[in-house]
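Retro notes, item 3 of 5
We never archived the inputs for the magnesium ion complex last cycle. Fixing that now. Sequence and ligand:
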Amino acid sequence: MTRRQRTKVGDSVARILTVDDHPGTLELLRRNLSAAGYSILSAASTPEAIELLGREEVELVVTDYRMPGASGLELVRYVRENLKDTVVMMISGYATVPGAVEAMKCGAEEYLAKPFTDDELLQAIGRSLEQLRRRRAERVCRAEKIVAPPGLVGESQAMCKVFEVLSRAARSSATALVSGESGTGKELVARAIHYEGPRSASPFVPVNCAGIPESLLESELFGHVKGAFTGAVTSRAGFFQTAEGGTLFLDEISETSPATQAKLLRVLQDKQVYMVGSSRAHKVDVRIVAATNKDLSALVAKERFRQDLFFRLNVLPIALPPLRERGSDVFLLANRFAAKFAEEQGRKPPRFTDRALEALARYDWPGNVRELENIVQRLVVMNDAETFHVADLPAVMRRRPPREGGLERTLAEVEADHIRRVLARLEGNKSAAARSLGIDRKTLRKKLEALRR
Ligand SMILES: Nc1ncnc2c1ncn2[C@@H]1O[C@H](COP(=O)(O)OP(=O)(O)OP(=O)(O)O)[C@@H](O)[C@H]1O
Ligand SMILES: [Mg+2]
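Structure as it came back at the time:
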């Protein structure tokens, strides 16, 4: 009795195999799960399920515990021993603790006792699939021997890619350009490039190009000699000299004036600086890492940023994905921040309820990791509880999106929501998202640009 509910399995549709000897239960599961958008296969016994798993790819097996002949436990064992990319959830009418323990010991990811509500079923399914996703991400990282540098949290595929480029960048002295929305961790990445590389014993000097008045920027960067201008009573080294042997981090590089851009270009080309008021060149050995939250190539196109400087800076581009495209990294980060801030107060790490985690995952995070960090800090400071519920979260996060069938939503809202969810699910992989949405990459890019406006 094999029923395949969907012929097309897109990137975002999880395939679930339900196994039960009661046709009525199978039918119920099939109806509920396909209504929730899953693709369903069914089998009436463990041997039938094993036979089916031999020829079909399935992400989750939901199996009954007691069945005539081989029990659900044997199916759990089979899956654990033979299928790396499948998780199992056990359902049992006998809510015995030993049964649950046994199921978990054999490798079931979840155990659900009958009777359960539709919501409980869907939540347990969600948790099982989340575990699968996490395991896949860990495997990608492990297979490629990628470890997050100290201080940087993340195991989504999007972040694993960043860590890989980062570790290569750390080994070289080439100029790197870190881009990403505000709060995505650009400065943290710039520091990691420096401290994970051979220059780590020399200084890391951060300069906020937007924070220094234009009239002072040149002397701050290159230093000045005595008498160079009114008030220059002594000679003073600039950031370039301070960073000798190390790394100069030019933050908000898009905010530099054309004059400063021209001077930076010269330093990058000649590897020497002129102190203000002096015509003598000083050789410098400084690695440049620049950062921007603007699209520099777009500024180049508008002639607001020098193209030649852009090329010199963009030797090693590192693009940080927004938090909403990092899948379950949101949970990792939320838990890490909660533990950190609780520890500061000598408290046990608090935990988030599943519904609170769901709300965090649904939120758009315009302020990215910084916003998450601030929110968690506020939660920990203002709330002594050991568990954080949805009600504790800021109001913007508590708003549940209108139900799927919400007739008050416009087509554009539904489309935007769907695009965001597919992208989040695929951790920002735009090619896969375009495929899943049935459009080409260019169309997706245009739609995303429109969403940002
Ligand atoms: N992957 C991460 N793991 C742990 N903490 C992170 C991560 N990314 C960012 N943070 C934290 O989030 C905060 C913001 O990071 P950072 O200052 O590096 O962002 P930014 O991209 O430079 O932001 P802006 O564009 O506003 O300057 C910092 O407190 C940083 O420690
Ligand atoms: Mg910054």
